[in-house]
Amino acid sequence: MRRLRIFPARALALSIAMLVVLQASTLFAVQPSRRINAIDDAQRAPMSGNVSPRVRGASDLGELPGSQQLEQLTLRFSMSAAQEAALTQLLQDQQNPNSSRYHQWLTPEEYGAQFGMAQADLDQATAWLASKGLTVTEVARSKNFITFSGPVSAVEKAFQTSIHSVQSGSETNFANISEPVLPATLQSVVTGITGLNNFKLKPHVSPRFTSDKSGSHFLAPGDLYTIYDMKSLVSGGTTGSGVTIAVMGQTEISLSQVATFRSVSGLSTNAPTLKLYGTTPGTVNTDLAEAMLDVEWSGAAAPSASILYVYSKDVVDTSLTQAINNNLAPIITISYGLCESGWGQSNLTTYNALFRQANAQGQTIVGPTGDSGATDCDYSSGSTTVTSAQNGLAVDFPASSPYVTALGGTMFNEGSATGATTYWSGSNGSNQGSALSYIPEAAWNETTSGSALAGSGGGKSDYFAKPAWQTGTGVPADYVRDVPDIAFNAASGHDGYLICMTTYCTNGYRASDDTLAVVGGTSVSTPIFAGVLALVEQKTGSRIGNANPTIYALANSTYYSSAFHDVTVGDNKQPCTSGTTDCPSGTTSIGYSATTGYDLATGWGSLDVANFVNDWSAVTPLSSGGSAISTTTVTASPTNVTAGNSVSVVVAVASGTSGVTTTPTGTVQLLVDGTATGSTLTLSSGTATGTVSTTSLSSGNHTITASYSGDTTYGSSLGSATIDVVAASTADFTLSPSTATATVSSGGTASPITFTVASVNGFVGSISFSASSSTSLAAQYTFSVSPVTLASGGTATTALTLYAYQSSAKVGSGMTQLATQQAALRRGEKAAAGGAVVLAGLLCMLLPRRRRLPILLLIGFSTVLMTGLSGCGSSSSGSSSSVTKTSTGTYTITVTATSSSTSSTATSHTSTVTFVVN
Question: Which InterPro entries would you find in this protein's record (predicted)?
């Protein structure tokens, strides 16, 4: 082998050059290191947050047949702390004109080389899946997920979970009803497993199929150009030429109807391109209007842009994932979503990471804020019409991600009776438009008494801290991500958008029966803004990546008044059921009003598109904050307190990035139940101490959140703690455990924990007990007495026993309750499993096949249910009297004491137990 000879001078120069390269690679590219040792199938650990919250309340139709084939299942991998920090820095640099990495977008392969898994780790994970009888169908170009398929029986066995058919209303789906369990070394690098259920997202479109004979106005592309000042751009050649918009879908569409829409609207012939992933979903009627409007109106806003319709059986798991994994287009529009709590923490983390990848590749994602006003978790679906919110204030994801631009809705507000003639012509002009000028706007809210909720989504995220760029006049000091960012007309009644689909547009926009297909919703705002971004990209000649830092820079500049229409009228408040979440007794509606500047109904308002596009490059994107990850923890003392007393709060902020040891600086803001309290606290040596008054707090649980601002090194973060408040003067009770920790070997029984309840202020009544876990686990519990009876001024006790095993795991998806009378039969696994088979058989004859499925905890019959309850429904595998040991780990068990006394204003109090299984 020939050796390279290097002379001293050249050697020195080469050494210096190599050192520079080495330093550059350390700064700009973190190469993936091995993170998976040998996969030991015997050492298992449960995942957390991988049971869909939508399983809650669904009817269980029994286990899926073992032979049923599941497709598009995906292992999603996390990043190391070093990769997280490096990606955060990259995303900042890509938006900083002074950085050498400004707009230096990555390919999926380049992303994978820096932020994906090591190839050897992917090989190990792939081999493990294959060993379980599963077929690997794809390894991501970005090296951060593996897609596979297989029969239900193999999936259940590989992940030690149970997959059932469930029904919600008229909709039938399948879903895993217990947390998947992975080999521990694999579990430590997996953020989630998608595809274990086939729940679909809700399209945020409000169809309205009516005739225009009444004289109502409906929007054609020409109206969009006039109202939002796009005519000069379109006529001047800024039409999105050379830019591709990827539209996400989960149904087949008709290209001929898209062609008809463009022809009727006076648009050039520009046929969309179709891209199918997986098996075709066919034509799904409930998704068709959404898909057609997305394709037609993104193409109307940017008439020369290339429209790529990406579709599959699942708009998020497949369509969106593949659009990012294959870097299909610089702009991605998705008009689907769900309230944050409906996703589950695992999915929120998984897809938020995917959106960061998209931004690093220069892809901009736009999404709707929803059509149920400020109450996004309450929405009409199928035959169910929701007319009053019961689930409280909530926002929609993906829109709530800091890496997605969130689109809200407005509606036209012509004012006086002469407004129609002031703003609308009696005939149609170019591109079928009849609008004469910009029309004043209000926040979209078409909810009327007894009607389905219909208004602009908006509010405060429960999951994401406020990004550094989200600042300006009107932006709430709430320390969390707020939505929307901007808005466009979204009304369906006043005034909706025309589309072509199915039998419509046989005579102009009309169907043969003279009706029109008219739609509204934030689903229309979203593709329109995608088209606007295509105009920006054509004008600037560059991809954008995350659009939000520039949008907020424009809103904070002298260009605001010319580029935005500040909407200051209206609200997105919705009727609520008195006494439900966020709707105290006597309250009739909840939500937010439009105000000067930014607001939680319309964001910064709508756009003067010509000025917005022309001014885009005149501002510098706002900073995204520090690059290193911070972690915030909150300790409250005491956690059980009588109203009127103060709670001491200690906040500790530390580095969450390997190798970064600098002590975080900056400030912390305390919030109680989402509302800021007191002045900001300044960190000293990474900690801050404050107090929270409980004088105005009601009896029961309250959340204290600490929001860390971030500094030049660290990004912002959130931490929280829960306190339990007891009423100061009205009848109430306290709940106190004898110890806060129970430790036991897997398969064993923990020592009982005594809980004492005490009457306060003359409380008299009975109190029942229950227990639940934040994660599903194969464990059981019993209370020695439930309910207990309290006399005025008296006390009572019950003993909680935790069992680190569960019988007949095929039936239970979580921790189950043992019968009180059977608590004495603690004879280990065999006794627990053996004595109940006869009783289980009797129950199978008595219980209906369809049963309600709580997501976190299956509560048994309080006086008759034994541990050996075996399967009443079908079971594809496993013994009916099997015992599953609890996986080793540390779990949080929440004990709830609920009052049935009419003399108490408190419904319940809670206490937590740390359950350590070794």
Answer: Big_3_5, Ig-like_fold, Peptidase_S8/S53_dom_sf, Peptidase_S8_Ser-AS, S53_propep, Sedolisin_dom, Tripeptidyl-peptidase_I
Topology annotation, domain 630-726:
Immunoglobulin-like (2.60.40)
| CA quadruple 175, 179, 184, 187: dihedral sign | positive
**Residue 863 is which amino acid?**
T
Nearest to 266 by CA among 305, 236, 309, 223: 223
- Exposure of 850 in the CB half-sphere (CA atoms within 13 A): 10
Task: Check: CB of residue 393 under 8 Å from CB of residue 590.
Answer: yes
Q: What is the helix, strand, coil percentage profile of the chain, to 5?
A: 25, 30, 45
CA distances from 629 to 348, 682, 717, 792 (A): 18, 19, 8, 51
DSSP symbols for 857-875? EE---TTT--TT---SS--
Cβ within 8 Å of residue 721, ≥6 positions away: 634, 635, 636, 639, 649, 703, 704
Ramachandran sector of residue 242 (left: φ over 0; alpha: ψ -120 to 50; beta: rest):
left
**Across all residues in the chain, what is the average pLDDT?**
85
Round to whole Å and give the CA distance between 298 and 296.
Answer: 6
Residue 529 to residue 523: CA distance in whole angstroms: 10
Tokens, residue 776: 């599903």
3-state DSSP call for residue 617?
A: helix
Q: Which fold has domain 202-618?
A: Rossmann fold (3.40.50)
Q: What distance in Å separates the CA atoms of residue 807 and residue 344, rounded to the nearest whole number? A: 27
Contact call for residues 142 and 115 (beta carbons, < 8 A): yes
CA distance 504 to 517: 6
Q: What is the mean pLDDT of residues 776-789?
A: 85
Where do the CATH 3.40.50.200 domains begin and end in the chain? 202-618
Give backbone dihedrals phi and psi of 488, rounded to 5 degrees, phi first: -135, 170
Closest CA to 248 of 175, 173, 337: 337
Any idea which residue has 């919703």 for tokens? 521
Amino acid identity, position 583: C
Total length of the chain: 918
The answer to whether 592 touches 472, Cβ cutoff 8 Å, is no
CATH class of 732-917: mainly beta
Q: Which residues contact 269 (CB under 8 A, 6 or more apart)?
A: 259, 262, 263
End-to-end CA distance of the chain: 55
The alpha-helical segments, DSSP class H, found in 601-754 are 609-615
Instruction: Please name the helix (run of DSSP H) or strand (run of DSSP E) that holds residue 898, with its range, or none.
Output: strand 889-899
Local structure of 182: helix, strand or coil: strand
Torsion of CA 566, 560, 548, 669, to 10 degrees: -80
- With contact defined as beta carbons under 8 Å apart, do 146 and 126 qualify? yes
Which DSSP category does 318 fall into?
I
Whose CA is closest to 510, among 745, 797, 281, 261? 261
For position 775, what pLDDT does the model report?
Answer: 60
The candidate with the shortest Cα–Cα distance to 484, out of 645, 615, 374, is: 374
Give the C-alpha distances (Å, rounded to integers) separating 626 from 28, 389, 406, 816, 831: 16, 39, 23, 45, 57
Q: How far apart are CA 644 and CA 622, in angstroms?
A: 42
- What is the pLDDT, as a whole number, of residue 285? 92
Residue ranges, comma separated, of all CATH 2.60.40.10 domains in the chain are 630-726, 732-917
Instruction: Give the three-state DSSP class for 203.
Output: strand
714 DSSP assignment = B
State residue 699's pLDDT score: 85
CB contact set of 822 (below 8 Å; sequence gap of 6+): 782, 835, 866, 867
Q: Phi-psi bin for 406: left (phi > 0), alpha (psi -120 to 50), beta? A: beta
Instruction: Please check whether residue 843 is in contact with residue 873, taking contact to mean a CB–CB distance below 8 angstroms.
Output: no
What would the pLDDT profile of 547-584 be if each residue is shown by its tens digit? 999 999 999 999 999 999 999 999 999 999 998 889 98
Q: Which of 771, 747, 457, 720 is nearest to 592 (CA)?
A: 457
C-alpha 768/C-alpha 755 separation (Å) is 12
